[in-house]
Every structure is written in C-alpha cells, then in structure tokens.
Design brief:
mainly alpha; Serine Threonine Protein Phosphatase 5, Tetratricopeptide repeat; 257 residues; disordered N terminus
Length: 257
C-alpha cells in the first residue's frame, strides 16, 4: 500500500497535475504561440514520465518554433528511443533538420517515416524539399508528385513557413527581378500551398532565365496538370525529356501518348 501511495504522489506535480494534463496545458499554450511557457509544461511532464514520447515530440515542436533546432532534434531522438516506430517523431525530426539545413540526414528521417507509413504525404513533401535544396531535382519532383497524389488538399504543418517564404521571396524580387533563387523558393512554396497558377508563373520566369534546366519544365508540367492544362503540361514534359530528364520522359510516355 505504501508503495502505491509513493507512486501516486510521484505521478503528480505540486499542483496535482499528471504528465498528460501538463502536456495538454503545453499544447494550449502552443496554440497561442506561447512556446516558452509550453516548453516549461512539457519539461515538467517529462520529469513526471520520461518514457512518454508525446511529451518529447511536443517539446520538440515548441523548440523548433523558437529556432532551437538542435534542442528539437534532441527531443525527437528521445521520442524515437522510447518508440522506435513513431512516424511523427521521424517526420518532425526531418523537418527540424530541414530547418537547420541538414538536408542529407533529413532525407533519412523522412524515408523512415515513409517506411512506417507509405501514405505519409508530409514526409514526401519534406523529403521533396530536402532533395530540391540539394539539387536532386528528379527525386524532388517524384516526391512532390507523391505528396500531391496522397494529399491533394492543404494538410501540411509547414503552411506558415511556406507563406513566410512567399512574402520574403516577393520582397527580394522587388529589389532584383532576376533573382533566380527567390523565384525558386517562391515557386516551391507556392507549389506546396497548392497555388499552382503562381507556381506556373514563377517556373515560367525561371525558364526565361535558364531555358536549359529540365527541372523547371518538369515542375511547370506538374503545376499545369494540376489546373487542367494537359496540352501545355505535355509540351513541358516533352521539352524536359529532350533536356535529359528521365522522369519527364517516362511521365510523357504514360500521360501524353
């Protein structure tokens, strides 16, 4: 009986809250962008139950939101130690590594999440972005297409980041209308927020700046296909294939012939 009472007391903090209740408090604070307060609650929850992967994941999300990417990655790693098949932990660790520009190892985490759940659209989107940043364009296109097929809606936890990218890239283009890097970033963000018309416009600008890059024809083909411009999409696929894209060649044969 004494052992039971000791265990019960240790499961509560000084206000009588359980680890789960502290996590709920932290999530409420995250919803109003009080990330530091949320981190405090998640830390208390972990002190009460260090085997709870959700507490580590939630604290990782809060740390990521304030730019503490290393702390976030550490929390997701602890969640994985407690639950090696936790899809969300791998996904979120990959996203934190993307934010920290560790794209190569981010790809490993997204691939793990996909191995656990082959229908994880967010993992394909995250891996597509990492491949894009590493200029693995064929792989990026394949992942982007997979994410679209699985989730044709806007269910992506990075929507806020994408919208901020669109704003910052647009400002950069006001200063330098020939900034290809800004067009690339804005096009990818528009694509991931399902603004296919906007992505088409940006890819057209990029093609004008560099008409020999097959990637931009391929991405424009996907965007045009998404808004029902089949004939134009096929023309882009054909041109991308002529420039050496094996992905575009296969896609053209399947979709346009």
């Amino acid at each position: 009986m004494a052992g039971f009472l000791v265990g019960f007391v240790l499961s509560l903090n000084c206000y009588g809250q359980t680890s789960e209740q502290l996590c709920q408090n932290g999530e409420t604070k995250m919803n109003v962008n009080n990330y530091k307060g949320a981190i405090q609650d998640f830390t208390k929850a972990i002190e009460l139950d260090s085997s709870n992967p959700k507490a580590y994941i939630d604290r990782g999300i809060a740390r990521d939101a304030i730019g503490d990417f290393k702390g976030a990655i550490s929390d997701y790693s602890k969640a994985i130690l407690n639950d090696p098949n936790n899809e969300e932990a791998y996904l979120d660790r990959g996203l934190a590594k993307n934010h920290n520009q560790n794209y190569n190892i981010a790809i490993e985490d997204f691939t793990e999440a996909i191995d656990i759940n082959i229908k994880c659209a967010k993992a394909y989107a995250g891996r597509g972005y990492a491949n894009y940043c590493l200029k693995y364009y064929e792989k990026a296109i394949s992942d982007i297409e997979s994410a679209m097929q699985i989730d044709p809606g806007n269910d992506d936890k990075n929507l806020k980041d994408y919208k901020e990218t669109i704003l910052s890239s647009s400002k950069a283009l006001e200063l330098n209308p020939k900034d290809s890097f800004a067009y690339e970033n804005r096009s990818f963000a528009r694509f991931m927020t399902k603004d296919y018309n906007g992505a088409t416009e940006d890819e057209t600008k990029l093609i004008e700046l560099n008409p020999s890059n097959s990637y931009h024809y391929s991405v424009r083909a996907i965007a045009r296909g998404a808004i029902g411009q089949r004939e134009s999409a096929c023309q882009d696929l054909k041109r991308a294939a002529e420039l050496g894209s094996n992905w575009a060649k296969d896609k053209y044969q399947i979709s346009c012939q």
